[in-house]
Amino acid sequence: MDATLDAKKRDSRGKNEARRLRAGGQIPAVVYGARQDGQAPQGVPVTVDPKEVLRILHSESGANTLIGLKLDGSESRVMVRDYQLDPVTHQLLHADFYQLAMDKAIIVPVPIMVKGEPIGVKQQGGLLDFVTREIQVQCLPTDIPEHIDLDVSELALHQSVRVKDLPTSPKWKAVTDGETMLVHVVMPKAEEAAATTDATAPVAAAGTEPEVIKKGKTDKDEEAPKK
Q1: How far is CA 3 from each of CA 60, 69, 107, 108, 150, rounded to the nearest angstrom?
Q2: Rounded distance, CA 4 to CA 6, Å?
Q3: Which of 67, 60, 57, 64 is closest to 91 using CA atoms?
């Protein structure tokens, strides 16, 4: 998804200025330029409309949305770098953007979208455990996927899918550790506990008397000390 956003430069900073901006329906923000020659990018203080920024953040592509930022009569491509929400009202308080070099690859988080119902769930009574819901991928800004589809229809009980098992794409490359677990089908905890108990329960040998617990011990004596 592409979006546009208007910004205006601001000269003053500080908490009082930030409160004044928010009272007027704007929020303080900073636009960072592209990194050059290993130097940290310089930030330009601006103001933006928080409603427009939230609309972008709540879109399907979220913080990975390519934004056409209009500032001083020119337009550049940026993405949301960071943002701050009020912990009580959840209103947007501040946002940071960074300019993109459209011919240089970037690393961004991309959500995993699970498709289908595993065989291990519908036929074997297992549960699908969704372990890792997003991974880091490297790609050009124009090739950022909104999500990565993962078909789990053929996944049986005790089987799993890791990052290295994802289908490859010519447009992006996963940079998250390939051994990172994405999903696996597990036995429900109640059944797993019952199976473990049955497997480890002591069986009296044929022709022997069962062990008799000595009398005279209190309930406290019988309890194993907690560690």
Answers
A1: 12, 9, 20, 18, 27
A2: 7
A3: 57
pLDDT in tens, 191-221: 655 555 555 555 544 444 444 434 444 444 4
Query: pLDDT tens digits for 122-164?
Result: 999 999 999 999 999 999 999 999 999 999 999 999 999 999 9
Residue from 182, 131, 127, 204 nearest 158 by CA: 127
Residues 190-199: tens digit of each pLDDT: 665 555 555 5
pTM of this prediction exceeds 0.85: no
Residue 141 backbone dihedrals phi, psi, to 5 degrees: -55, -35
Amino acid symbol at 188: P
Which residues fall within 8 angstroms of residue 26, CB to CB, at 6 or more apart? 47, 48, 49, 50
